[in-house]
Amino acid sequence: MKRLGYSPQRPLYRAWQQDPLLVAQWHAKQYPKIVARAKREGALVFFADESGIRSDHHAGTTWAPVGQTPVVKATGARFGFNILSAVNARGHFRFMSVEGSVNGQVFKQFLQRLIAGQTQKIFLIVGGHPSYKARLVKLFVEEHADRIELFFLPPVLS
Question: Is residue 134 part of a domain?
């Protein structure tokens, strides 16, 4: 493979459902409006997302002689957890780890922690995870409209 110009590489993962046109439009039109409004209102713009982490995940590559698959020895005791995080261009970073699934209750707790101690309103840009749109999250955001507002990235194709 090397003689043919190939090398072992880790692939970049992209959502095949993502609509590049919608993303470009959002970036060109919606995002500048959010940033301008945040500046007028003295708010901070954050991006948030969730991610799952597993103890048995293997993302790397390695070389081995042809026909001899490399073996990585690891424990059979596997575990995983989820992380919610929010970051902004000023270097602010907030995160929360949870055992179990990310649902509306967990996301609400994350929002509570995110606004705790903040003197500025937060404009939080999120994706389409169902927990972000849960009824109790909507109610929480409405009750704290002076401290936090959610903005949604363009949806993926169905």
Answer: yes
Q: Is residue 98 part of a domain?
A: yes
pTM given for the model = 0.77
Lowest mean pLDDT among 4-8, 92-96, 107-111: 4-8
- Phi/psi for 34 (5° steps) reads -65, -45
**Mean pLDDT value across the chain:** 87
- Note down the domain range covering 118: 43-53+79-157
